[in-house]
Fold this sequence. Notes:
It contains 14 helices and 23 strands. By secondary structure, the chain is of the alpha/beta class.
Amino acid sequence: MNTAKNIYLLGICGTGMAALAAMLKSQGYIVSGSDENAYPPMSTFLASQNIPVYAGFNVTNIEAAKPDLVIIGNALSRGNPEVEHILNHKLDFLSMPAALSDFFIRGKYSCVVTGTHGKTTTTSLLAWILEAAGQNPSFFVGGLPENFKQGFQLSDGRHFVSEGDEYDSAFFDKGPKFLHYRPDLLIINNIEFDHADIYKDLTEIKTAFRRLINIVPGKGHIVANADDAVVAELLQKAFSNVQLFGLSEKAAWRASEIQFDGNGTAFTIEHNHEPVCHIQSPMMGMHNVRNVLASFISATLLGLSPDQIASGVHSFQGVRRRMDKLGEIGDVLVFEDFAHHATAVKETLEGVRLRFPDRRIWAIFEPRTASAKRKVFELTYYHAFDEADQVIFAAMHRPDKVPESERMSIPNIINALHERGISARSVSQNEDLLSYLPTEARPGDVFIFMSNGSFDGIPGRFVEALSNIHQQ
């Protein structure tokens, strides 16, 4: 265990960093930090925790704090004045995932949830199943589970459930975050090429997952998606107990008799073709069926009964900004979703279509992540919107962050959608959405705003605009 008492977080307003700061504060450490973008909601959250935050980066911040240890976020790099001070004065420092492991995961039974998609939902669901069964888990997740109302919990239970991100850890620690989390139980939902800003191709991502699989103990468990060809390939070198889930015959754990309605999804979980449990889940989409399967198997391995697990699934309230219902105005529904990758867009829209088979579906997508803006992913978007009736591309966020030669062409995607009979258009600035969408809405329409960022507040403002029209 690290013996530091005074801890300073550089880049403290990042979602994971703010949560880590609060966790450290709750354990009696003196905590402070700095960030260039110290604004709500993170600044408000940190203020509620009585954690001082210096606005902007300046050597005087660290000199005033006099920390024993500095935790450096992965958005920071060489040239930052505080980073240079830390190095020049040989202050002790760690990356965020290394600190999470050293201070909180060590000594717990570590359950790590990984994959290109579904990490946040599956982490939150497994944590809630354990909580509902009285297991008092600790957890750390990069979203806001509605059952807990915050992205972390520290408890005296045996288990620590963490979202295992494959993104790099810090400028001095370029390995993926999940390698720090010492998994005893590892979930792998799926593996695709993503994070094109740090990975060259799928081969590099596979290398990261191979290393993760290789550190699961022999007496540990790997719960993995049998329907994913890349996952199946990597599992051939696993030394741990492997439990496969999916919808195909390759999986020992399968979902059958799947039914969707306006309230969610019902299905039966089978093990080796024998029924084990009937599930009623409030979530929609085949991707969420797999998320439930992964959580069910994991909770079974952790000693819970099928009835305990089914009860936890049924009472799960989801994760904010994962098909989060923003409003229902008249007969028009408005949702917000985190979908940031073509596969996530596709699975989200397929789930919406299953839930609302006869409604007109609007998909409003903001290309924001490094991957979402790159030409290498362009073709994958040609079919990602197949279940939508109307598609609108919002303005690309910070296109200057991607060289023009590597930048995705929104006109090309729109042309491909038009060729298959899907109405699509783009706007040059997000404000244009508010002058167009409210006048186009018809009773029965379903609007889904998809972005991993703030979307300039457009989704909430759209709901307000619809409400004003409805009241006239």
